[in-house]
Amino acid sequence: MKVSDIMTADARCVGPDVSLAVAARLMRDLDVGSLPVCDNDRITGVITDRDITIRAVAEARDVEGTPVRAVMSPEIIYAFDDQDVGDAARLMEIKQIRRLPVLNREKRLVGIISLGDLAVEAGASLSGEALQEISQKPHADVHA
Questions:
Q1: How far apart are CA 32 and CA 131, in angstroms?
Q2: What b/e readout covers 94-108, taking b as 16+ CB neighbours within 10 angstroms?
Q3: Using CA of residue 37, residue 139, residue 84, residue 115, what is the dihedral sign?
Q4: So what's the pLDDT on residue 120?
Q5: Strand (E) or helix (H) holding 103
Q6: Average pLDDT in the 36-42 region?
Q7: 130 or 83: whose pLDDT is higher?
Q8: Closest CA to 14 of 57, 80, 59, 69
Q9: What angle do helix axes 124-134 and 85-95 make, rounded to 10 degrees?
Q10: 10, 22, 72, 136 - which has most CB atoms within 10 Å?
Q11: CA–CA dist 105, 137 (Å, integer)
């Protein structure tokens, strides 16, 4: 099974200059904990609810005046839409992430794959293993 078979297509993203407040409201409205950050049609990072909480709110930053780029995670971890679902699940395990942007081979954002997508479409075994690994304490080479 390919990633494109189970991903959520038409993923929403935010621009790097959008305020944290706008990004947080979009996360709330979409009921998600992370959003890809796109500059034009290229992904440049990911902003998570944790980024906003730990890097902005905890430091008393102005969420209306602080742009997403100031606190986003610049490391871009992604899967290609034509990759095997098992490969994407292993990448999520290794990097301990619950959502993975999906790109086409031109490196344009085409979707998101989540643990929920794995559970519903790929089966309990694959998603259970991924969840177990993701929930472990971070490995030494993984950013928390």
A1: 17
A2: ebbbbbbbbbeeeee
A3: negative
A4: 78
A5: strand 99-103
A6: 90
A7: 83
A8: 69
A9: 20
A10: 72
A11: 32
Domains and CATH numbers, the chain: 3-134 (3.10.580.10)
Q: Please report which helix (H) or strand (E) contains residue 55, including its range.
A: helix 49-55
Q: Is 42 exposed, middle or buried (0-12, 13-18, 19+ CB in 10 A)?
A: middle
Q: Which two tokens stand for residue 40?
A: 């034009």
Residue 137's pLDDT is 56
Q: How far apart are CA 35 and CA 32, in angstroms?
A: 8
Residues 34 and 99 sit within 8 Å (Cβ to Cβ): yes
pTM of the full predicted structure?
Answer: 0.80
According to the model, what pLDDT value does residue 122 have? 62
Confirm if 32 and 99 have CB atoms less than 8 A apart. Answer: yes
Give the pLDDT confidence score for residue 129 in this predicted structure. Answer: 54
Q: Tell me the pLDDT tens digit for each residue of 15-35.
A: 999 999 999 999 999 999 999
Instruction: Give the separation between CA 18 and CA 77, rounded to whole angstroms.
Output: 21
Q: What is the DSSP letter of 100?
A: E
Out of 54-58, 92-96, 138-142, least confident range: 138-142
- What's the distance, CA 42 to chain centroid? 14
Determine contact, residues 112/119, Cβ cutoff 8 Å: no
